[in-house]
């Protein structure tokens, strides 16, 4: 795959005929289990029913009013593990392909230039949102729909957070994301790019600078490392830097030159690791290995994605745990030390913990290693909100229903609260926080007028 445009090209979605045919398979269940299976409450039963009645604009309204990132979620959501898993049609055949129907409706609206929303009546209150990932974008849009003045502070040059910088471009490219962002910008949300909130209590201090509430959706931009002291070895990448490079033409060219014809090993078993192995295969690595200390069944990723990578020729080395690097005198990677594992007793989460088998160490010859072993908060990020309670993983603790922190007027959501999770869960947090912020500001206004 030598063409940059080809590398950035997403797979095609349903056309009109395919979407109608698939929607006609819906059983129109009275209890709508598919809608109950959507964390973002996008209401698949509602938009599919309207599509069956050829009410396409009504179907689009249902999606966008419930989920401003309905297009992104249609592409990235593990639908087979959520709404489609709950689909009653699976009892008599295969489930309805809800995600593909949802994507068709969003793209149809874009092509027809259909505007779902009307401009709301403006309120005087101002809300600051830190981070423009899925949680921040959703919270911003939901508040702007209610007329609040929203300013999003984004540290990077472009908005989108993990949607722009943390996902392989052939899964979600710049053009698709920009169309989705347009729906947020139509509400008048202000984006301040290259604007990192810094300094001690920087997030909380926004309340003293004209903002009535703050939402923290900074995400996780620190990388878990196998051997932190060896992170500068030639040939070792962390998944954050690697995936970010795929979105920059110059850096992509450099990565391609380094990977083509080389042996690439990816450490990890989640969706990020899948993006890393698949992209390495597309960049023409001679061999690509995914090394995971657990089993297939414990991989935290969509099973369809696993099949896709197997078809691309990725080698899966399961029940194997990397423990160290093998390098030459110039610190160039030559191999990966690995120990075999077996699944032991269940841990507190109900998963069987991997145990290293004594005397099982072996070496995998490799030229490049990509670590996809988990994202963590950036170093010292908690200094931005010193009065907010955090747990032992440096994640912000909130009320699970309102996403409110212990600091009055400060809310948080997304990965900085949950840890690494699906986009749809960040959307859920953004919606919950927006509802709570509105209630908080409504009450504040009532008290102020008494």
Secondary structure elements and pairings:
Blueprint (H helix, E strand, L loop, with lengths): L3 H4 L8 H8 L9 H4 L7 H9 L3 H11 L3 H7 L6 H4 L11 H15 L13 E5 L3 H12 L3 E5 L8 H4 L8 H12 L4 E3 L9 H4 L7 E4 L5 E2 L12 E3 H7 L3 H11 L3 E5 L3 H12 L4 E6 L10 H9 L3 E4 L1 E8 L5 E14 L5 E5 L5 E4 L2 E4 L3 E2 L33 E3 L2 H4 L4 H27 L1
Parallel strand pairs: 1-2, 1-4, 2-3, 4-16, 6-14, 7-8, 7-14, 8-9
Antiparallel strand pairs: 5-15, 10-11, 11-12, 11-13
Helix pairs in contact: 2-8, 4-5, 5-8, 6-8, 9-11, 9-18, 15-16
Commentary on this structure:
The chain is α/β, with parallel strands linked by helices. The protein has 3 domains: 4-112, Alpha-helical ferredoxin (Fumarate Reductase Iron-sulfur Protein, Chain B, domain 2), CATH 1.10.1060.10; 126-221 and 377-449, FAD/NAD(P)-binding domain; 222-375, FAD/NAD(P)-binding domain (3-Layer(bba) Sandwich). It is built from 18 helices and 16 strands. It has helices at 4-7, 16-23, 33-36, 44-52, 56-66, 70-76, 83-86, 98-112, 134-145, 162-165, 174-185, 202-205, 239-245, 249-259, 271-282, 303-311, 415-418, 423-449; strands at residues 126-130, 149-153, 190-192, 213-216, 222-223, 236-238, 263-267, 287-292, 315-318, 320-327, 333-346, 352-356, 362-365, 368-371, 375-376, 410-412. The strands form 4 sheets. A 5-stranded parallel sheet has the order 3-2-1-4-16, covered by helices on one side. The radius of gyration is 23 Å and the shape is globular. The N and C termini lie far apart (66 Å).
């Amino acid at each position: 795959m030598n063409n940059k445009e080809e590398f950035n090209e997403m797979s095609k979605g349903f056309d009109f005929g395919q979407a109608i045919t698939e929607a006609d398979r819906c059983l129109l269940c009275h209890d709508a289990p598919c809608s109950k299976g959507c964390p973002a409450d996008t209401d698949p039963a509602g938009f599919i029913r309207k599509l069956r009645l050829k009410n396409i604009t009504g179907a689009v309204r249902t999606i966008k009013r419930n989920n401003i990132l309905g297009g992104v979620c249609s592409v990235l959501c593990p639908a087979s593990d959520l709404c489609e898993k709950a689909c009653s049609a699976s009892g008599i055949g295969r489930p309805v392909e809800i995600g593909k129907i949802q994507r068709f409706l969003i793209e149809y609206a874009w092509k027809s230039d259909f505007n779902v929303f009307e401009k709301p009546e403006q309120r005087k209150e101002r809300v600051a949102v830190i981070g423009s990932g899925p949680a921040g974008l959703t919270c911003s849009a939901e508040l702007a729909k209610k007329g609040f003045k929203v300013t999003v502070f984004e540290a990077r040059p472009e908005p989108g957070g993990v949607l722009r910088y943390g996902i392989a471009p052939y899964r979600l490219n710049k053009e698709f994301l920009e169309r989705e962002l347009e729906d947020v910008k139509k509400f008048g949300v202000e984006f301040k790019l290259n604007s990192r909130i810094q300094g001690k209590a920087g997030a909380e201090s926004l309340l003293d600078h004209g903002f009535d509430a703050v939402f923290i959706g900074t995400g996780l931009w620190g990388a878990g490392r196998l051997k932190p002291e060896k992170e500068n070895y030639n040939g070792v990448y962390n998944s954050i830097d690697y995936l970010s490079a795929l979105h920059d033409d110059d850096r992509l060219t450099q990565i391609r030159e380094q990977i083509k014809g080389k042996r690439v090993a990816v450490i990890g078993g989640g969706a990020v690791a899948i993006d890393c192995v698949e992209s390495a295969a597309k960049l023409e690595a001679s061999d690509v290995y995914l090394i995971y200390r657990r089993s297939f069944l414990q991989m935290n990723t969509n099973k369809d994605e696993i099949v896709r990578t197997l078809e691309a020729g990725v080698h899966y080395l399961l029940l194997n745990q990397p423990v160290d690097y093998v390098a030459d005198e110039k610190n160039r990677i030559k191999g990966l030390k690995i120990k075999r594992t077996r699944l032991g007793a269940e841990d507190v989460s109900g998963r069987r913990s991997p145990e290293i088998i004594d005397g099982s160490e072996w070496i995998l010859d490799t030229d490049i290693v990509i670590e996809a072993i988990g994202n963590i908060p950036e170093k010292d990020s908690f200094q931005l909100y010193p009065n907010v309670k955090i747990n032992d993983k440096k994640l912000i603790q909130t009320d699970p229903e309102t996403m409110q922190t212990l600091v009055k007027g400060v809310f948080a959501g997304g990965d900085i609260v949950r840890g690494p999770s699906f986009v749809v869960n960040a959307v859920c947090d953004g919606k919950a926080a927006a509802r709570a912020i509105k209630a908080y500001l409504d009450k504040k206004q009532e008290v102020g007028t008494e």
